[in-house]
Write a structure and sequence with these properties.
- There is one protein chain.
- It contains three helices and five strands; from the N terminus they run E-E-H-E-E-H-H-E.
- The protein is an alpha+beta fold and about 140 residues long.
- It has a five-stranded mixed beta sheet with strand order 1-2-3-5-4, with no helix packed on it.
- The longest helix is centred in the C-terminal third of the chain and has 28 residues.
- The protein is elongated and about 70 Å long.
- About 15% of the residues are buried.
């Protein structure tokens, strides 16, 4: 771990607790057995070499997961339905319009998600926190 003021970069290894965690597929740590370096707010005053507990708010994780995974799919489905019902207004068949509208809505949702994710990343609720030093 390295620190800079109130921010610390901690090496996070996959642990036995990852197997029982409901977020193991979303966080990226549980996959592949590799370690990653994460940035966290150092609330506990941890120092280099300390074993720490890192926490994130569950509600924030759920909101971010919805934004990243569910919202684009819902937008694509909405676009496909709108496209399927739009043939009287265009010179294309319902299947072609469903595909065009579906992928257009999906692309717009991805752009929106990217923009929103950048704004959320700056909010305190979405940042990892070192809440406790387990072993110095």
């Amino acid at each position: 771990m390295r620190t800079s003021g109130t921010i610390a970069w901690a090496k996070v290894d996959r642990a036995g607790g990852c197997e029982g965690c409901s977020q193991k597929g979303a966080c990226g740590i549980g996959a592949g057995g590799k370690s990653v370096e994460v940035e966290a707010v150092n609330e506990a005053g941890a120092r280099v070499g300390d074993l720490v507990l890192i926490d994130v708010k569950s509600a924030s994780v759920l909101k971010a997961a919805f934004l990243l995974y569910v919202f684009p799919i819902l937008a694509m489905l909405a676009g496909a339905v709108i496209g399927h019902r739009s043939p009287p207004f265009f010179q294309l068949g319902p299947s072609a319009l469903s595909a065009i509208f579906g992928f257009s809505f999906f692309g717009a949702a991805v752009l929106f998600t990217r923009s929103k994710a950048n704004r959320l990343a700056r909010k305190e609720d979405y940042r990892l926190r070192i809440t406790r030093v387990i072993r110095p």
